[in-house]
Amino acid sequence: MILQALNDYYERLRADPETEVSDFGFSQEKLAFSLVLSEQGSVVQLRDLRQFEGKRSFPKPAVVPKLPKERSGTNAPSYFMWDKSKYVLGCELDSDGNEIFFKNQFDSFAEVHREILGDNKDSGAKALLNFIDQRIFGQVPEWATKELLSTGFICFELDGQRGFLHERSAIRNAWQEYLRKNQSEIRGQCLITGQHDCSIPSTHPQMKNVPGAQPAGAALVSFNAPAFGSYGKGTSNHNAPVSERAAFGYTTALNVLLAPGSRRKVQLGETTVVFWTDIPGVAEEFFGLSVGVKEAEDHEMAQEVDQYLRAVVKGYYPHELGKRDTPFYVLGLSPNAARLSVRFWHVGTVGKMAENIGNHYKALRLQRSFENEPEYPRPWWLLKELAPQRDSRHIPPLLGGQFIRAIVHNQPYPRTLLTTVMGRIRADRQVNYLRACIIKAYLTRNAQKEISMGVDKENTNIGYRLGRLFAVVDYIQNDAAPGANVTVRDRFFGAAAATPRRIFPVILKNAQHSLAKIRKEKPGWAITLDKSVQTILGDVDPRKGFPATMTLEQQGMFVLGYYHQRQDLYTKQEDKTEE
Amino acid sequence: MAQGVQLRVWGDYACFTRPEMKVERVSYDVMTPSAARGVLEAIYWKPSICWKVDRIHVMKPILFDNVRRNEVESKIPVKGATGVNAAMKDSKTPLRLYIEDSRQQRAAMVLRDVEYIIEAHFEYTNGEDRNDGKHLDIFNRRAAKGQCFHRPYLGCREFAAFFEPVQGEIPQSALTGEKDLGWMLFDIDYQADMTTTFFRPVMKNGIIECRNQRVVAK
């Protein structure tokens, strides 16, 4: 289904006049120079196609003939109608500016063009063949500048005529004829289109711009080691018969989605997520900004997304997103050296997607500690909380994909989410808004717990109660000895959450000492604090006492109780009455 | 049908690998007919019959999960000095693969908590041994006792299948509505150089119709 949807997307892109995708056998490349040839094949002019902005130069993007696979190896054949000077002139400058000559490449350029153009009657074709005949190996023509010999791709045009040689219809036809003749001999049923008797290529074009994969490109469909082949098909893509055209289609579409600056791509840890709809519009943008992107580029955009989120959290559907039943596709990819692996794949509708995102953010909702904290924390920020030192490189690799999958499918969150966040809290003893959000979302969705946004004094869950108690004790100690080197939280947080029976009697006793100290200075406040300890403890079953151990879920509740109570303690009384 | 059987199979995991994504494995949404055939053949098969899968009932919602495993990239060769042929000839050459040198970490997107009911019948491949009741009884007896030639599996050998015959009517699936499953592997034509054949099923209320497809693999 994945490849089919991508191939369909390619067909749609091709039908859309506003987007430029290349046809089969052509590719968009960046050209630096053009040689203007006379009909006799001599070079009339050397034209620089680059645009300059200050010191930087930008080669001109152009659609040129290219086989749908990457060139590789030391003696790779020349491209048709364009190439580097290594091929065109057989000469290239090394980094020290010395001329180095390449015989194989020089010959390959002639060979390829003679084979394809042969006895072509077109004047442009003749001019190029004449040019090839006049080249002498080992000599650099005087018009060749140093830049031409060291950078960029070269193409050709005919003197006195508009456009490049590779744009002439006679030459395009010759190229297409060549493609037809050179398709793979092996035929079979295409697994994307279902068509019988298609020509099946042995490799597919590669995908670029996937962080973590090889920069030259990685393959989604490949069989690059003997153990991967089946039924004697070896390491070729005949293991998975895909027609030449469909292979080109799906890879082109995926490359468009992955292109730098694409708005249909988000990066989460090592997972690259691409998404698209049948009807382009706000929906794609909304998804990208609500699920991915570290920061929306401009403030206005971020506010707009927050507004949509506010609506979907309440269960409304913002009509700006377009028709509800527009199909929506999400594909999560992650790199594995020269290959790409699929982390998840989801086909839904825009309406369902908005609903699922709404459910996710609803599960996350929690009272903020500070005004500047995000009301709707993006997955990226949450994932960073799970990494040691908040370094995005240390995000557990599988988790990003699983987390997004849980969001788009509206499924339970991965359990590792809870174990990882509890592990982080135990390690650095920091309970902040984002971590509390993660725990709340997990417990709401996976353990079906009812959890309020702020402190819930009626909640009798033992974990929650003890968490609140711990917050009060922490507060008392802080009040009695402000700026202590080691606080009760630093020493006891993890242990108090895991084994209350062992820890709580100790810290409650210590709290009494602290209370005694506060009583000397602020007797009224000491009574208030003492009362709140009593009220919280009041509901703890005296027969059972403190539980010896607590499960991970109870520990999660402990963290939430702690977070809520602390919020409550540190919020000024007047603020509270206003709410 | 006089030659028809019904078998319930289930398991914790399944991976009906898509051929286009068999290196970093991605499973099809549902069991393929050839995987169903494999399950039946694991329980009972002989050269005079061949199994034809009629319908596959998908009983549980489709759920995916990701796993990452260490595997190897090479096979022990058949030919050559270190190959299987050489080892068989002199019965001394050790057959070995050093995993340290050929380790490959592969990710897989597999199915979780699956349950299917396979409806199938058998056909005869030649004139011998034509006795409907006998084959049917053998299959049902073996399936009820849990006997099999090798443990049936759900797509990959590591995802073992549990099985039992279905008595009486087939229960309603948990799935409703129609779902286009795209082009799916139907089977492999072993007589035409192991060519793969594909079909385009539509799942209606959890039922996938597998008849009226090109007949392959005799």
UniProtKB/TrEMBL annotation, chain A:
CDD domains found in the cross-reference section: Cas8c_I-C
Source taxon at top rank: Bacteria
Protein name: CRISPR-associated protein, Csd1 family
Native source species: Desulfonatronospira thiodismutans ASO3-1
TrEMBL record, chain B:
Name of the protein this chain belongs to: pre-crRNA processing endonuclease
Entries under InterPro entries matching the protein: CRISPR-assoc_prot_Cas5 (IPR021124), CRISPR-assoc_prot_Cas5_N (IPR013422), CRISPR-assoc_prot_Cas5d (IPR010155)
Domain of life assignment: Bacteria
Swiss-Prot/TrEMBL keywords: Antiviral defense, Endonuclease, Hydrolase, Nuclease, RNA-binding
Similarity comment: Belongs to the CRISPR-associated protein Cas5 family. Subtype I-C/Dvulg subfamily.
Enzyme class, first EC level, given as a word: hydrolase
Purpose of the protein: CRISPR (clustered regularly interspaced short palindromic repeat) is an adaptive immune system that provides protection against mobile genetic elements (viruses, transposable elements and conjugative plasmids). CRISPR clusters contain spacers, sequences complementary to antecedent mobile elements, and target invading nucleic acids. CRISPR clusters are transcribed and processed into CRISPR RNA (crRNA).
GO BP, sorted A to Z: defense response to virus; maintenance of CRISPR repeat elements
Record-listed E.C. numbers: 3.1.-.-
Pfam family, one: Cas_Cas5d
Keyword RNA-binding: yes
Organism: Desulfonatronospira thiodismutans ASO3-1
GO molecular function terms noted in the UniProt entry: endonuclease activity; hydrolase activity; RNA binding
